[in-house]
Amino acid sequence: MDTHKTGGYAVSEPDKTTRPISSARQGKEVPRGEDSGPPLSQLGQTTIGEGVVTKVAGLAAREVPGVHDLGGGAARAMGSVTQMVGLGDALNQGVSVETGEREAVVDLTLVIDYGESIPRIADAVRSQVIKRVEGITGLSVTEVNITVNDLYFPGDDGPDEAPRVA
Amino acid sequence: MSARVRLARLAGQVIARSDGIAATAGPARRWQTIGSQQAIPGVLAVEDVQGRVDIEVHLVVRWPPQMPLEQLGEQLRERLRHAAGTAGMGARLGAVSVAFDDVRSETECA
Q1: pLDDT of B50-70, one tens digit each?
Q2: Mutate to test the interface with B, among A91, A136, A137 (most CBs of B within 10 A)
Q3: What secondary structure does DSSP assign to B1-54, as a single string?
Q4: ipTM, interface predicted TM-score of the complex
């Protein structure tokens, strides 16, 4: 699998032992228990959109201290533009999710605060994403592939010199 | 008011009273039931030939969800069945489908 090494530091190798997921489709039906009483068609069903899984993964990754942002430079630049015109969702940038009936694969591109241990942050992000996605959606996460695309230095966002005029 | 619209309104009330739901979904108000005087967003009510009304609700969840989404869906389904029973419309209520379309973070809710 592509580890997104171009222009960045690939942190993780995907787990080769995981099963491939079934063909992804928009939305999924959350499986119900076998002994859950009346037929599903009578009670109705619960569906979770793929966008929900994507957003949960992105929000979970952002919960980990040391993660500054998600997405590559181009994605973030593009994201800010699309967001300004109301087309994009900043919380989805840097997150790609493939879902099947019961499983999900998550690809993340991170910007990490300078000075943090990249392997430690990657492990923490992986754990948090698995915990949140599995806990909230009921999907089994088979892979969380992480690419650290950039490091954030304090002061990167704004001018580091004091203004010359008051 | 028809049973279809009454059940759709009940569904809307159940959603409004539920913690953890940020909004009803529907880009361009795609999912809605047109009532006698107002639209009920996020709720699709369809009556079949036997007079049973299937309800489909489209939701945006507030981050972080307080429970697994499947459980939240079950809870909404149960509450709607209870509300319909209380309103004397339990027999008219058919399948209740719950679709989670998006998640909204605190900053997005603000």
Answers
A1: 999 999 999 999 999 999 999
A2: A136
A3: --HHHHHHHHHHHHHHH-TTEEEE--GGG-SEEE-SSSEEETEEEEE-TTS-EE
A4: 0.83
